[in-house]
Design brief:
Strand content: 15-25%
Oligomer: single chain
CATH architecture of the largest domain: 3-Layer(aba) Sandwich
Number of domains: 2
Number of strands: 10
CATH topology of the largest domain: Rossmann fold
Helix content: 25-40%
Low-confidence stretches: none
Number of helices: 11
Mean pLDDT: 95
Strand order of the largest sheet: 1-2-10-7-8-9
Order of helices and strands: EEHEHEHEHHEHEHEHEHHEH
Bound molecules: pyridoxal-5'-phosphate
Length: 306
């Protein structure tokens, strides 16, 4: 049986110099064959606790593109723990097979429960969710996106000693757990720059509460309209990037972040030093699902190798 703790340490890969800026990508997307990038980091200590306490069931939340849901499903399968996914949108109930991510989760044995978006939005208080949780005694609940103390601890292991010489460390932000872990392990001489992948106006307040350090900044100008929204300029950029560097990017997080970094440098608006470390947080499992959607719209597809 594959143990959950086995992973490769990540490698730093240099890109060409862009207008005098050296960009190095930390390939966290390659550390685990299935549980890619930051999702491995976020789940490492949570699943260690699940194993130690012999917890029978893990329950979590996510949408039809959620890398977190896919990671929990495959982590659960690999250690033989039952997983339950509470899915945003009851319209998915009868069309699981139309979501690449949800079908993957089901194949890994995750039990999916699709709930209306309105209830999902209030999931922490909703009676409907409480009723689901009651059906699984002794369950371990993981918050949406996995962001909690143990996840931040795992993400603080992304940066290694040799990374503390970079001027800046960049990552994409969803729920912010990865960003906080990076801030905690960064050197005070570094700037940790986060790129919002969704419209989330409260994220700055959330981060301020979670860390005492202030060597960080959040850019929210490259959300491309919101979570899992894309446009042709983003897809073109990702495809050119892939052609040039053979590094696949995902459309929801890392594609938007690298688009932003390249554009800010080209517009001479990059203010965070010339030695840049970019964290590739993974998310490649989301490409196939996005391509299905793009195909329906007759839009340009994301090129990648399966
Ligand atoms: C989930 C995810 C993120 C966001 O991580 P948070 O800790 O929720 O901010 C970034 N990149 C990828 C590829 C992800 O799957």
């Amino acid at each position: 049986m594959q143990t959950f703790n086995t992973f490769k340490s990540s490698i730093n890969q240099s890109l060409d110099t862009i207008e005098g800026h050296s960009i190095v990508i930390k390939r966290e997307d390659l550390i685990h064959p299935i549980i890619s990038g930051n999702k491995f980091r976020k789940l490492k200590y949570i699943f260690k606790e699940v194993i130690d306490r012999k917890t029978p069931t893990v329950i979590t939340f996510g949408g039809a593109f959620s890398n977190h849901l896919a990671a929990v499903a495959s982590a659960g399968k690999s250690i033989g723990v039952q997983t339950v996914g509470i899915v945003r949108g009851d319209e998915w109930k009868n069309k699981i097979n139309q979501s690449v991510t949800l079908s993957f989760c089901e194949k890994k044995g995750m039990h999916l429960i699709c709930i209306p978006r309105k209830i999902y939005a209030e999931k922490d208080a909703a009676i409907e969710v409480q009723q689901i949780l009651k059906k699984y005694p002794k369950n371990r609940l993981i918050p949406e996106g996995g962001t909690e103390t143990l996840a931040i601890q795992g993400c603080s292991e992304i940066l290694e000693d040799e990374d503390l010489g970079f001027d800046s460390v960049c990552c994409s932000i969803g729920t912010g757990g990865t960003f906080i872990g990076l801030i905690e392990s960064s050197s005070l001489n570094q700037k940790v720059v986060g790129f919002n992948a969704l419209k989330n106006s409260s994220i700055t307040d959330f981060i301020s509460i979670q860390t005492k350090k202030n060597n960080w900044e959040i850019n929210s100008k490259y959300t491309f309209g919101g979570y899992a929204k894309t446009d042709d300029s983003l897809i073109s950029f990702m495809n050119t990037f892939y052609q040039q560097y053979k590094i696949p990017l995902d459309p929801i997080y890392t594609g938007k972040m690298l688009f932003a970094i390249f554009e800010l440098i080209k517009k001479k608006e990059w203010k965070w030093g010339k030695n840049i470390l970019v964290i590739h947080t993974g998310g490649i499992q989301g490409i196939a699902g996005m391509n299905l959607q793009l195909q329906k719209k007759n839009a340009q597809l994301i090129s990648y190798e399966k």
